[in-house]
Amino acid sequence: MTETKCPVVIVGGGQAGLSLSWYLCRLDVAHVVLEARTACHAWEDERWDSFSLVTPNWQCDLPGHPYRGDDPHGFMVKQEIVEYVQGFVKSFDPPLRCGVRVTDVSRADGGYRVETTDGVYVAAHVVIATGAYGEAVIPGYASAIDPAITQIHSQAYRNPHALPEGAVLVVGSGQSGAQIVEDLHLAGRKVHLCVGNAPRVSRFYRARDVVDWLADMKFYDLTVDRHPLRDGARDKTNHYVTGRNGGHDLDLRQFALEGVDLHGSLKNIRDDVACFGNDLAENLDDADRTNANIKASIDAYIAREGITAPTEAPYVPVWTPDGGNASLDLKAAGITSIIWCIGFRPDYRWIDVPVFNGRGQPVWHRGETEQPGLAFLGLPWQHTWGSARFSGISRDAAYLAGRIVGRPVPVADASSARLGALV
């Protein structure tokens, strides 16, 4: 295999890897970005048709490429997101090689050997920017379910019409699960939802998007080392809410009023009978409590700053469970599809460097591991809430670029697209 020496190899050509490339290009650091598919693969091929951002457009702030549209408080839909990322790529022409999959990363001669499907790279610095969505989680017992029932993971869901006729069981009530339930419900499908412990948040409160309030409260500047949960923040499930049709709350209780069957968390499926935990009421109450706590923090901020804002009555549950069913016969309920919305697990089996803990997760500080020159980028709460999002990846990329060149690199903003503004 051909062997190429390159100072920096970035593995992953999504928004994280490209953001680091943007800084390295302006710092005149030779590098290559290796992407197994395309820069927009995750957005184009692993999101459903009606997908939209749950954060407002003004938070889209890739380096040198902030949102410049006419709807900063709106929510980009799938195609607009793809066009935004494509525009970022075109804005600086990175050394991006698509269709090249990395098969092994190992130590070699004071640096790293990166084996790919198109040759070998030897580099002093390797940055893993493949994101947090390594391997879709589907429980082992799923293989024993009658094959006549279609099973897909949330990343493979596209629209209600792509599923067989009949009722649908959605497992997991995080962002993906809650939004997919709404998509199915609006299309008139019969839906059963296994409700987990995901928290929820209101879209708007006291006449503003909650995200705007939290930004003013400096929540998005909170670093993980100052978070009350410290590293535990990385394990928390995202709050469910939606940006669909201008944004609104997702209230599972309202779905229940309208005919969606809610169940407790799924324990197992045996002989095509689903067994649920006795935790439906608890999970709904906990989600509402989280939402109420966020509102209370906004209330305290408004009072402390002397801000004039309309008041809002406390939320009153519109539906409460009567105990719920302990089990459900899938065939008797007419269920023909199951959508697993229970997340992902890391998959770094191709990295042959000792930087992982017992759960297979990389150990790092601000992305840097204990192995000199090996770093990660684009992971949840790598430094702040926005580390895995359009809003915060630039800050993390600037930090790692600075570590590579040996001097601090300022974070880009809308006016710093030129090299002279950075060095």
TrEMBL record:
Alphabetical list of Gene3D superfamilies matching this protein: FAD/NAD(P)-binding domain (3.50.50.60)
Keywords, comma-separated and alphabetical: Oxidoreductase
InterPro entries documented for this protein: Auxin_biosynth/cation_transpt (IPR050982), CHP04046_FMN-dependent (IPR024000), FAD/NAD-bd_sf (IPR036188)
The GO molecular function terms of this record are:
flavin adenine dinucleotide binding; monooxygenase activity
**What is the protein's given name?**
MSMEG_0569 family flavin-dependent oxidoreductase
